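Risk register update: the risk of archive-format incompatibility is retired. Evidence:
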Amino acid sequence: MDVQEHNDFINAGKEETAIGKRQCLDPKKYLSLDGNSLNTADLVRLGKGLFNIKLTYEAEGKVNEAREVIETIIKENRVVYGVNTGFGKFAHTLIPKDKLMELQANLIRSHSAGVGPPLSVERTRMLLALRINVLAKGYSGVSMETIQAMVKAFNASCLSWVPEKGTVGASGDLAPLAHLTLGLMGEGRMWSPQRGWDHAKTVLECHGLTPLVLKPKEGIGLINGTQMMSSLAAEAVERAVGVARQADIIAALSLEALRGTTKAFHSDVHAVRPHPGQIEVALRLRSLLHSDIFPSQISDSHRTCDRVQDAYTLRCIPQVHGVANDTIAFVKSILSTELNSATDNPLVFAERGETISGGNFHGEYPAKALDYLAIGVHELASMSERRTERLVNPSLSELPAFLVQDGGLNSGFMIAHCTAAALVSESKALCHPSSVDSLSTSAATEDHVSMGGWAARKALRVVEHVEQVLAIELLAACQALEFLRPLKSTTPLEKVHELVRTVVRPWDHDRQMSPDIEAAHTLLREEKVWEVARPYMDQYRDRLGLKPLPLDD
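Archived output:
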């Protein structure tokens, strides 16, 4: 772990300790898991410790039925992969009945081979919740006793040390899920709000919990699956949703500050190329910019200028932001299925007392979707950085160079723009698809893998870069508006400007820029920009007889 990773981890631990101490003050605040209805937004909320969890009555019944099949297989001495055989290349090795429990424990210990910094507490909580959810489908053969022990650990926020690196994404996220299980067995390290990081057995005992003793089939039942890549994907896609819709608001601010035209957003233009995202973004822009409903003095001031059309990063916002929105929607639909899928091997079909070996553990679906997400959402930053360049470049903006008075003595937004450019460049490399790679593992038994774990981690980094680049543009656009005073923009954009000014004062001379960028980034992470603009966007739609913006999940 390098210095930055270490510091990030320590800070995350402090933050999560505070969250953990606050969580579930209302013991009746539960989210029921049934293996069929978990969505990305709720999984993120579970990660934040906003709910305890429990299984539905129907899920408990299915779990018990599947376990009965496994017990019957053992009694009848039927040979089933992972129950009484070795794993991977050792699939043809039969294991004596008196060694079946040792087999499962050995599997967890040997597969706990991850490296690198651990997942944050929030992300580990998401991982545990998602694994419980897929077990609740009742196709894994894991006992109700074991799942209930996992539920109790989740509700107590007893969370295993899970290194973020080491999965190739088939047979699922083996190493991360093995580490998750290892802590539940009372081995390795574990975190809780009361103990912080300590030996897992100590943490469990502190909370009155008993370490897991794995029954036959339970080791493989707990580690086959795509839950690490999918839980990280849930966070990535939810953050992408938030930053994408706020990107439209920030772009509108920049267009206003650059005194651009709204003609390119006319509904007729987009009706003849009716991609859903494009149409929606154009409508959002119309609801934010000059109209009869929300007039703009700035827009009126240049109505008679001779400019015919704007640069692409202004004129083509609906087309580029639109496909980013459609990409996010596509990825979210993939994940909605993946979060509620049985990804174990072998699968147990209790209704006919049968197990079937398959390949649902293969992570190609989430891996491909995550690569697509990174590529799609990156364009929001690519567009944003170019708009920031236009704002700080006096030959393009007709504003003071780098948006500061006394240029030369002051450098203003010069290096803030460099930061945006650096982040965009780094993200270009991160957008190279990981899922096009495959390395054969397990002595060629697992001869094609998804690399979905890396797809998830780099997608999260790309999303964070997008947030940071847009935070810089938000600051630059608000600073540019200061030079157009006393003219006012539209009501929604003025409200956004007011919001920013509650955390960042105008730039009248040079000062440290990083805290301002972080403050703006926090506004975006908490979706404050969206919250302040949305009522006016809904008002615009209402006046036109259009449906209001959909409610958040």
